[in-house]
Amino acid sequence: MARRDSPFEEGPTDDLFRADSDVEPGESNVNVAGFDIQPIVFGVSAGIILLFIVYTALAPEQAGEYYGMVFDWINANFGWFYIIAANIFIVAVLYFAFSKYGNIRLGGPGADKEFSDTSWIAMLFSAGMGIGLMFWSVGEPMWHIADPLFGVEGLDYGHLDDTGEYVIGQPEAAAEVATAITFFHWGFHPWAIYGVVGLALAFFAFNRGLPLTFRSVFWPILGDRIYGPWGHLVDILAVFATVFGLGTSLGLGALQVNAGLSFLGDEVFGLAVPSGAVSQILIIAAITAFATVSVYLGIHKGIRILSNVNVILMFVLMLTVLVVGPTLFLLGLIPQAIGLYFDEFFTLALYTEAFGGAAGAQGYEGFGAAWTVFYWGWWIAWSPFVGMFIARISRGRTVREFALGVLILPVIFSFVFIGIMGGTALHAQIEGATIMETIFETGQEEIAMFQMFLEIPLTAILSAIAVILVVTFFVTSSDSGSLVLGHLSSGGKHRAPRNQRVSWAIIEGAVAAVLLLAGGLAALQTASITAGLPFAAVLLIMCFSMYRGLSNEYEILESDEFAERIEELERDTDVVVRKTGAGVVSHIEDDRTDEPGD
After folding, report:
1. What gap in Å lies between CA 243 and CA 507, rounded to an integer?
2. Tell me, what DSSP letter sits at residue 587?
3. Burial class (CB within 10 angstroms; exposed 0-12, middle 13-18, buried 19+) of 425
4. What are the start-end ranges of the E strands in 86-185?
5. How many domains does the chain have?
6. Other beta carbons less than 10 A from residue 510's beta carbon
7. What does the alpha-carbon distance between residue 504 and residue 45 come to, in Å, rounded to a whole number?
8. Which pTM was predicted?
9. Position 579 in a domain
10. Bridge partners (DSSP) listed for residue 158
C-alpha cells in the first residue's frame, strides 16, 4: 500500500523494496494558523534566518565587514575541501551510471516514466537555465580576459601600460581561455552536484517510499532515526543551504534587472532610472510579490507556464544573438573552447592554490577564492532546490539514464549559451569595444550583457527580452524554492500549505535584500560558500548512503524471493517482465488490454 502522502501507486513487487517503517511523513507536525510544520525544522531554521535578517538590516556595514571576514576565513581554511568534494561528486555520478547499479530503475522495477523523454529533456534544460547563467555568461569571460587569475603556460595575456590601461597581448588566445574557464565553472562539476542530490532523493522517495526530503537519504545509515534529531539537523542544513543559495541568485537577479532598466532608460528612452541598493530592494519586493501570486496559482497554472516562457525566451535571445552577432566566430569558438576545457580539465579541477598562486604560470593568486570556491559553494547551496526538482520529474528512469542525462544534456546547453553570449562580447572587445573597461571602471558585472548588446543590432529589443527573462527566472526560482522549502519544513509532505510556501517566498526575498544592503555581490558570495560548507559534508555522506541503498536494491533484485515473485507474476497474470543483464529487472508492465465493461 502506498504511503498516504505519496502521489504514486506501487507496482506488483514494490513491497519488497519499501523501507520497513510505520512512520508517516509529517506525523509529528503541528498545525498552526494554516501552517503544517515540522516544529523543530521550521522553528529552528526560520528563527535563525529571521535573526540574520534583522541583524543585517539594522547594522549593514558591520555585517558586511563580518561577512567579508567569514569569506576570507573559509577560503583560507576550506577552499581545498570544496575542490576535493566537487571532484568526488563527479566520480560518484559516473560510478553509479556505469556500475552494475546503472540498470536499477527509479521507482522500482514496475515504474513507468512519468514524463516523456522530450518533456524530461526540456525540463532539464529549464532547470539548467537561471539567473546565474544570465548574469555570468557575459560577465565572467570578460573578467577572465581582463584579469587573468588563471592562465595557460606560455600565453601572454597582456599587461597594464604606464597609464594603467590594460593591453591584451594575444587577444584571440585570451578569449579562448576565458571561454574555457567559464565552461569549467558551468560544466560538469555543478551538474554532478545536482545529479548526486537528485538521484539520492529520487531513489529513497520512489524506491523506498520515504518522504521527499533530505533526511530520507540517510535511511541506510540511520534507519528510523531519520525522524529524530539527526534527521532534523540534516533538513535544517538543507533549509539554510536552499534559502541562502536562492538569496544569492535572487540578489544577482535584482542587480541585473536594475542594470537592465537603467540601461534601457539611458540608452533607449532617455530617462534616468536610478541604480543602487534602494532600487534593487524595491525590485526584489515587487518581484517577490509576483512570486507569491505564482505560489497561490500552483504548479500547473504558475510555475509551469512561466518555465515554458523562460525556455522560449532564452532560445529566442540566444539564437537572435547568434544570427545578428559574429556568427562564424561563435561557431568556431565554441568547439575550440570546449577542446581547451577538456585539455586543461584536471589542472582546473584540482587547482587548490596551495602556493598562493605564486608558483609557475599555471596559477595566479586569488583565482580559487574569487571564482571556483564561490561557484562550488553556490552550486552546493543551490543543490537542494535543483536536485529535488530533478528528482521529482525523473521517476521511471534508470540510474544510468538519469545520471548521464543530468550530467551531459544541460552542460551542452550551458556551453552553447555561454559560447554565444560571452563569445559575442569577447569578439566585440577584440574588435575595439570597451565592454571590459566599462565593467572595470564601474565594478558592475551586471551591466556586461547590456554593454554587449550595444555592439550588435536590435539592442533595445534584446535588452528588453533579457530584463523580462531575468524577472521570470526570479519569479520561478522563488516559487520553486518555496515549494522545496515547503517539503523540508513540513516533514517531507508532498503538499505543503500555500501559506507556508508564501512565507518562504517572502523570507527568500528578505534574505536577498539584506545581503545587498550588507555589501552587494561580496555578501552574496559569502552567503553561498558559508551555507554550502556544512552541506558539502552532508552530500559526501549522501554518496555513501546512496551506495548502500543501491547495493541493497541490487541484492533484492538478485534474491530468490524476488525471482519467485516474478515467476508467480508471469504464471498467474498478464504481466510482462523485461530483464537487463545480470538478472536485474529493468521493467515490469501489465500487458492486459481491458475491454469496455470488463
Report:
1. 8
2. E
3. buried
4. 158-160, 166-168
5. 1
6. 23
7. 11
8. 0.85
9. no
10. 168
Instruction: Give bridge partners of residue 36 from the DSSP assignment.
Output: 31
Q: 365 by DSSP, 3-state: which?
A: coil
Question: Is residue 346 assigned to a domain?
Answer: yes
Q: Using CA atoms, how far apart are residues 136 and 462, in angstroms rounded to an integer?
A: 17
Task: Give the three cell numbers for residue 302.
Answer: 504558475
Give residue 74's domain range: 14-558
Please, which residues have CB within 8 angstroms of residue 527's CB and are 6 or more apart in sequence? 67, 244, 247, 248, 381, 511, 515
- Please report whether residue 578 resides in a domain: no
**Best-predicted range by mean pLDDT (62-71, 205-214, 480-489):** 205-214
Q: Is 132 exposed, middle or buried (0-12, 13-18, 19+ CB in 10 A)?
A: buried
Residue showing cell 525556455: 311
Three cell numbers written together for 295: 505560489
Percent of the chain with pLDDT over 90: 23
Q: How far apart are CA 409 and CA 390, in angstroms?
A: 13
Distance CA 575, CA 152 (A): 59
**Residue 302, CB half-sphere, CA atoms under 13 Å: how many?**
19
Burial 16-30, CB ≥16 within 10 A → b, else e: ebbbeeeebbbeebe
Contact 478, 461 (CB under 8 A): no
**C-alpha dihedral over 185, 188, 193, 197, to 10 degrees?**
140
Record the cell numbers describing residue 414, joined without a space.
Answer: 550551458
Confidence of residue 6 (pLDDT cuts 50, 70, 90): very low
Lowest mean pLDDT among 166-175, 411-420, 536-545, 578-587: 578-587
Largest CA distance in the chain: 90
Residue 454 has pLDDT above 60, yes or no: yes
Tens-digit pLDDT profile for residues 304-335: 677 777 778 889 999 999 999 999 999 999 99
Structure-block grid coordinates of residue 132: 546565474
Burial of residue 352 (CB within 10 Å: 0-12, 13-18, 19+) is: middle
Residues contacting 596, CB < 8 A, separation 6+: none
CATH of the domain at 118: 1.20.1740
Query: Hey, what's the cell of 186?
Result: 558551468
Task: State the cell numbers at 131.
Answer: 539567473
Residues 6+ apart with CB under 8 A from 215: 226, 227, 230, 231, 232, 234, 235, 492
Q: φ, ψ for residue 575 (rounded to 5)? A: -80, 135
pLDDT at 112: 81
78 close to 69: Cβ distance less than 8 angstroms: no
Give residue-wise pLDDT tens across range 343-398: 989 988 988 877 664 433 334 445 655 688 888 988 888 888 788 878 888 888 99
Least confident of 47-61, 125-139, 207-221, 272-286: 125-139
Instruction: Give percent helix, percent strand, percent coil of the chain, each to the nearest 5.
Output: 70, 5, 25
Question: Can you state the angle between helices 498-517 and 521-558, rounded to 10 degrees?
Answer: 140
Give the residue with greater pLDDT, 419 vs 165.
419
- Nearest 10 degrees: CA dihedral of 245, 248, 249, 250? 120
Q: For residue 278, give the C-alpha cell.
A: 534602494
Q: CA-CA distance, 465 to 263, in Å (whole number)?
A: 13
- The Cα–Cα gap between 45 and 318 comes to 39
Q: What is the DSSP letter of 101?
A: G
CA dihedral 229, 233, 234, 239 (to 10 degrees): 140
